[in-house]
Structures
1.
Amino acid sequence: MIPYVREIEFEYGACDQVSPLIRRVVCNNPGPFTFKGTGTYIVGRGEVAVIDPGPDDAAHLAAILAAVAGETVSHILITHHHSDHSPLAGPLKAATGATIHGCAVKSHVEEEAGAPKMEAGHDLAFHPDVSLCGGGTVSGPGWTMEAIPTPGHTSNHLCYALAEENACFTGDHIMGWSTTVITPPDGDMTDYLESLQRIRARNFETLWPTHGPPIRDVTPFIDAYLAHRQERMDQITLALSRGPATIRQLVPDLYRDVDARLHPAAARSMLAAIIHLERGGEIEAGGPPGPDTVYRLANA
Ligand SMILES: [Zn+2]
């Protein structure tokens, strides 16, 4: 069981000091992929960095600008290009003169026509001024932030470690309220599992996801996240041990306890897991990745 943390006290548009160096403003965009909304973090005092400014929302821009009144925004740091994270970077840059840091969309990401909506959508206009795809450090007075490449949720996902508090801003890579959606082809389960290990190895004291409250029991939480993915993969190989099957056939069985409206999302996650198992030589595919491809155990 994942020890979810979902309790969060806030008021939309208000700025809360949540740690000695971190302030948070929550955008009023709650939803199935954003929980209570996008939590925009402001790091430092006087000369600050803003992490994930959020959707292009005039009220949220005004709230961020009010929070940093009299201060300089030197850096805008983006975890990934989803539309609840990056679109406000442009307007915030125009208002403050800050430079945008992040990793540009790597692959040509297109929303598949007719595919179920799995995420808050892609911000294909996202272009950082400074590329941190390979990692890198940015700093201001009293704060040092290191970009950590964490592909998986998207191919360009970055987490940002705050050295002074041994904390990490995890975007959508690790969230306290939910598991992360992995939608191939931009989402990749093999990369995702490696990226979880990369964050786990750092022994951070606190994780600050873009949605929801901070995670304080970091290692047990990441271990539960990893165990959950392994459990889902074990369920798939167990089901295929009873005979070849398609994702369309497996989902209603393996996700029978889950609301049927979430089955399309479950099918995408299952595809991500199956591609990972196929790479590992555990599963063979009878065709290109998809819901109606017949999968079988490799040794069957
Ligand atoms: Zn996302």
2.
Amino acid sequence: MIETRATLIADLPRPIRILSCVAASALASLVFLSAAGLSCMAQPPAPPVATPPAAEKPLPGFDLSSMDLSADPCTDMYKFACGKFPANHPIPPDQPGVDPFYVLYNVNTQELNSILQKAETSANRSPDEQKIGDYFKACMDTSAINAGGLKSVQPWLDKIDALGGDSVSRMKLAGLIGELQRDGVDAFFGYGEQQDYKDATKQIAFIQQGGLGMPEKDYYLRSGDKDVKLRSQYVAHVAKMLTLAGSPPEQAQKDAQNILAMETALAQASLGVVDMREPEKTYHLQPIATFTASLPGFDFPSYEDAMHSPHVAEINNATPQFWPELMRQLDTTDMATIKAYLRYQVLTTAARNLPHAFDAENFDFYGRVLEGQPEQRARWKRCSSAVDGALGEALGKVYVDQYFAGDSKAKMLQMVHDIEAAMGRDLDEIDWMSPATKALAQQKLAAVANKIGYPDKWRDYTTLIIKPNDALGNELRANAFENDRELNKIGKPVDKNEWQMSPPTVNAYYDDSMNNINFPAGILQPPFYDQTQDAAVNYGHIGAIIGHELTHGFDDEGRKFDAKGDLSDWWTPDDLKNFTARTDCLVNEYGSFTAVDDVKVNGKLTLGENTADNGGLLLAFMAYMQRAKEDHLDVNAKVSGFTGPQRFYIAFAQNYCENTRPEAVREQVLQDPHSPDQIRANGTIVNQPGFANAFGCKKPTPMVPANSCRIW
Ligand SMILES: [Zn+2]
């Protein structure tokens, strides 16, 4: 579910901050990374329509219309809760799939759009309104974009062309790569700022593998017809982009083949998605001289200058095994290939703001081929999302004023406290952990900071220049602004109030180094949080998501960080052994689920998310029952024909009602740490001790098996 290249998930600087979120990366990326756009093929550029044609409606908090009451919840809870969802929700041609996250994302996009249309035209605009309004206006002006041809990227293409084939030109690459990356062009590797894993009070520089055009390394290395075909489609796509920019077709085809060969060599030297989840494998703090010794001939100070980075004294060399191969490629690949690679990177980054043919070709590969999506999202949706990506807190400030109910924050906070209290009781009760480790776990739980809705202090965009007639310039300047803001943090104290998601985002996250849970206003809307529904439904929906984020602090990755957010070993060997036996149970269980065709869920890749889903639901149920007790709610009273616990579990399963294209499921399973939606519903239900009782299921049934897994 992607407006951008899934590959960005793997190699943008952002993932080095371990943020574990609730929605699949596809949706997360829609909101975060709006650099590369998508468009449908072979159609003339239609004049963009600024207004949504029909109103997107939020899903109800409790959705009877999606339920298949003929199904037996003890046999297939997903079918019972969501069986009619696909028939009622055909996949729109401009989406890879539809689920409650996507529906709400569409609702929010529509709301952002109405804010932006006003900001575009109103008189006496504030400086922030000028920026969001003009960014949107320029993005929507496809006539100007089409008429401009390659003018907006020409300075970049000229700089790349000016590189010669000699060793002097290779020396100049460091500075050029830095200039490109600062503008948001993904070239060869990633560089950014992170909290030091072992001392969360410090903000340091990190550098890591990158530069791949396909979602992750195995796309280059897997055998099998689908992958071989995909690689040839990737080559054809790169060649087409280069041809559109003026290369003779034969030369472009040759360059594209060579680019694939170079990227394949880089892929071979890259860590895979499972290894990238392990903080010890991506933490190698080094004096800068030690690091630069692994980059012979690469002028690192010039690179830092071009990136507007301070000259750092130490760096987290996240992927040491990558640099020898990168250096080999930069030294030995012929300059024609390196120049074609850089040209392609510029074109794909800029595609949304280049003439229609570029935008269409970029969509054809990243949307149609990779995700099976027949049509590109409407321009007004893409431009609204792009403003959220570039100026998220300027737009978010207005969004929160207009669409976030005043008392939502207080009600959410009560649920958060209820679920944290449930986790405290759960930690006390579990029988596999020693008192010593339990005490430290309780300490960590007590230190979790709760952030709800929006930042206390809004970001200052004063120095970012946005013009009404410069779509690509706006995007590149916004990328550079964000780059500089991030790198400016190196060496400074940590700002604990900072958010990694914009307020309208339909997602939530736990941050290991901050030890905080974050719920943007965008997800605190129906169906996830519905003021008209009772506790059973809201604890099943958003309560399970709160529990999910909290449990991330104690999953296979989060458990390695302590109360202060430092990577440190606070577990006794026996407790760790017990924990690992329990996580192995989940790895095996989820690894046995088939996602699509011949592709099974990757139990290791999804372990953290599955742990969070399972713990989150258990905690939310404990919290709901406790809340019912304290507020004297009759949980056996039936509403819409169901008891409180039944509605709790139905609401949870309905978080994951879905209708998804098989290509998109395939792409998700191969590189995303979240299991596919249906599996998130049933895979979690089978491990819930409260479920059998709620629905009167006899053991064993498919949803109440003889053996199940339990960590938290
Ligand atoms: Zn998560």
3.
Amino acid sequence: MTALRLHNTMSGQLEDFVPIEAGHVRMYTCGPTVHDFAHIGNFRTFLFEDLLRRVLLQQGYRVTQVMNLTDVEDRIIKKAAEHGQTIDEFTEQYIKAFFEDLDTLRIERAERYPRATQHIFEMVSLIEVLREKGHTYVSDGSTYFHIASFPRYGRLAHLDVSGLRAGARVDVDDYGKDDPRDFVLWKARQPGEQSWETPLGVGRPGWHIECSAMSMKYLGESFDIHTGGVDNIFPHHENEIAQSEAATGKTFVRYWLHAEHLQDAVGEKMSKRLKNFTTLRDLLSEGYQPRAIRYALITGAHYRSPLAFSPELLKAADSAVKRLDEFAVRLGTTGDAQPTTEIQHRWDDALRDDLNLPAAVGHLFEFIKAFNTRLESGKATPEERAGAMAMLHHANRILDVVEFPEAVDAEVEKLIAQRQAARERRDFARADEIRQQLLRMGIQLDDTKDGTRWKRVPPPRP
Ligand SMILES: [Zn+2]
């Protein structure tokens, strides 16, 4: 068996994955800023993290995943004030919507979703440690991280910080590319802003400190995996490393994984700023199926490649999901067996190769195509069909898009058995009644010398 290899942004290379604690993976994922509905590009990143989580679980690891909810940040403060609401009142609707969207896309829940506003004490304590160790300074009542005091600054983003201007600093939470400046840890209160009274003064946290404080609280000072979108690399993750490692003197995170952007149909990065984004809710109201959206976002491209989001992509995803459903129906078995060995190995190896789901799905469809030929020629044995079904279940542990007809199967099998019994006692009227009943369910029977086979057909019009 090959080892699980993951691309580490820190080294720029594929590395064998070895967790700090044998058998247990501790992972932190930057969560949503709950000032609006998350857009579909955000969900590409959350689905990549769901893929990673599922692969780790399928590899047999126990996973402790923490995803923060950023509920205090420039835009939230501004919008809450505009609505005359507290932060909690304003963010509640978007937190609720976020979890609904996770369920719609079948994104598995993390173990914890800590909120920034509930960890002010931890953030202040961390800033105090940084202050004691000489990594901060105060200007106009705000506390800043002095990045020249942390020589490793810029390693994750591979930035050149030699031209760094001493004392150049930035107050906004999210700032421009490749512009390393001293960033704010604690912001002095502005008129009209919700604030907290702390030993650092009256104010509120900068954006970056929350992820250091909450990840280390729940996962320890050093943990295995930190994920996000590529636009988190700088400044956010660079700042997280500086805050955490300057405070503890330890390596903060072993593996940094980042998902590439989702692009619009003309190849622009989808973003709130460009207003070229779509929300999940928009897509659902246009009639797209959640399973197709999920499938498109996880298989459309490898997570480290940009993916162009288009109606064609969704259409192709929809038909791929239907083909998987149909395959499950044609196999007509519960899959109570071991997955077919060869395809399982190819599937697992592709996923262990930096989560190459597009390749894994390619192998799966080759297998399905070949197996369909065997089914059509009647060569597939019951054991082979059970193995194929077990493989489909194995794949679906990652994909989570197939609707297995097992509940229907059981009902169909029962009716077929009743029909067989009726035929044996020469009650042909009853046997035909059952045949008609099945036809209304969209099931067509075919009596062969090996017994009765069935397949799904469009139900007759009433
Ligand atoms: Zn973060």
